[in-house]
Write a structure and sequence with these properties.
The protein is α/β, with parallel strands linked by helices. It is built from 18 helices and 15 strands.
Length: 451
């Protein structure tokens, strides 16, 4: 019934639509607000056709993403009648926090309860973070900040909201994928304003993902009258406006110290003769699974570079997360020996003398130098970023270097904020210490040698 109504409304001039609506039976009028296909924008708010696993809905603020997510869930769990089964029965609803899952995805103006007619509305068990529909379909709310809560449950569908701002996007997304194992065709929808999040980029590049995009202005009819004019006057054409209003995915944080083109132009396809190799370590404060990673980056001076303007090459990223102090120290020492390093440099702001003690418990023969941060992260990073702009730092492009996660963090590192999918730019911190030691600290250099 909804498709003929939609077609009729679109054919009629605006002044004739009220009379047409008044001619509809009372039951149809009562149902009309909940017939999503009548109101949805077909190309951006209705599910794409075809064989896909993930529907990625990217759009500006207020573009109708949340409504699209809620209506997709409705379409999956509801049948022809309130008690008829739908195509899916066990779903995960994942937001950055449990509060946001509740307040936006379930209770919000465009959330599930507001979008569902009374006779099909699910019972929301707040304390259990659980929804149950009259036909027995169920959904559970999860926080992306707690990826381990997704270990164990299994689903045949999922809705992820604002994934681009999840701080722990990588482990949360991975755990969810392991749980999508019920039914013949498990599917998921991701609704988000785009940000330079490595997981979002990975989802977009997946062959089983279909992406739709919608700017804020497409939903002008459902926004406050002056809102669009005000925000477009202030942000249109600017980087923040392109992201937050136009729904563009900017591959770097606006104003980031490093850019993708900068890193792409800094590729080196082989290991040149080296004159000094450094392993730099940025230890985490704690060793819990949710802690920051221990940044471990290997870099070296290029021996044949100009003595007046020496160059460095980043050889590998050995960073590790959720390990005990002895475990990360063992890994750092292993990198030291693997690359025949001249020195291991470690920040000691958090651990003090304990950092060197832990490393020497693993191997008391290594050359160790403690460094202490006296300025903020961005101030320490800016001189290193300037060396990249001058072409004085390159990255080894061999797969064994495993630098992609490090580079993702670099492009998410702005002068005022870090927008990556971890809480701290731990790998970048280690990189900064390594390049600082190699290019910004004066010392006599050892003789040329090869790895």
């Amino acid at each position: 019934m909804s498709d003929p109504i939609r077609a009729a409304l679109h054919r009629l001039p605006a002044e004739e639509r009220p009379a047409f609506l008044a001619s509809l039976p009372p039951k149809t009028l009562l149902a009309l607000p909940y017939l999503w296909s009548v109101w949805a924008r077909p190309l951006t708010q209705l599910p794409p056709k075809g064989d896909w696993h993930t529907w990625l809905v990217m759009g500006g603020r207020g573009s109708g993403k949340t409504r699209a997510g809620a209506e997709w869930v409705r379409a999956q769990v509801e049948g022809a009648t309130p008690l008829s089964p739908g195509s899916r029965r066990r779903l995960a609803l994942v937001a950055e926090t449990a509060d946001q899952a509740r307040d936006v995805m379930v209770l919000g103006e465009s959330g599930l309860l507001a979008c569902t007619p009374r006779d099909r509305r699910p019972m929301f068990h707040v304390s259990r973070r659980h929804l149950e529909w009259p036909n027995g379909a169920q959904a559970w709310l999860y926080s992306a900040a707690d990826p381990e809560s997704l270990r164990g449950p299994q689903f045949d569908g999922a809705w992820c909201d604002e994934l681009a701002k999840w701080r722990r996007a990588a482990p949360a997304w991975d755990m969810l994928q392991f749980g999508l194992r019920l039914g013949d065709d498990p599917r998921q929808i991701v609704t988000t304003t785009p940000r330079a999040n490595p997981v979002l980029i990975r989802i977009m590049e997946d062959a089983t993902t279909v992406t739709t995009r919608s700017p804020t202005r497409d939903n002008a009819a459902n926004l406050a009258p002056n809102f669009l004019a005000q925000v477009e006057a202030r942000y249109a054409g600017k980087l923040l406006g392109r992201q937050e209003l136009d729904g563009e995915l900017l591959l770097e944080t606006p104003g980031s110290l490093w850019t993708r083109p900068m890193l792409e132009s800094a590729r080196f396809d082989h290991v040149p003769p080296l004159s000094r190799v450094i392993v730099a370590v940025d230890p985490p404060v704690t060793s819990r699974a949710s802690s920051d990673a221990c940044g471990i980056v290997v870099a070296a001076l290029i021996a044949d570079s100009d003595a007046e303007t020496p160059r460095a090459i980043v050889l590998a990223d050995w960073s590790v997360q959720g390990r005990s102090p002895r475990a990360w120290a063992t890994r750092a020492v292993a990198a030291y020996h693997e690359y025949k390093a001249d020195r291991l440099v470690a920040e000691v702001n958090q651990g003090g003398d304990m950092v060197e003690q832990i490393v020497r418990e693993v191997d008391d023969t290594i050359a160790f130098r403690a460094v202490r941060a006296t300025r903020g992260k961005a101030l320490r990073a800016e001189p290193v970023a300037a060396l990249y702009e001058q072409g004085r730092v390159v990255h080894l492009s061999e797969k064994a270097a495993l630098l992609s996660t490090l580079e993702d963090q670099m492009c998410a590192f702005g002068p005022h904020a870090f927008t990556g999918d971890t809480r701290s730019p731990d790998r970048v911190d280690a990189l900064v210490w390594a390049i600082t030691d190699l290019l910004l600290t004066r010392r006599s250099e050892p003789k040329v040698r090869s790895l």
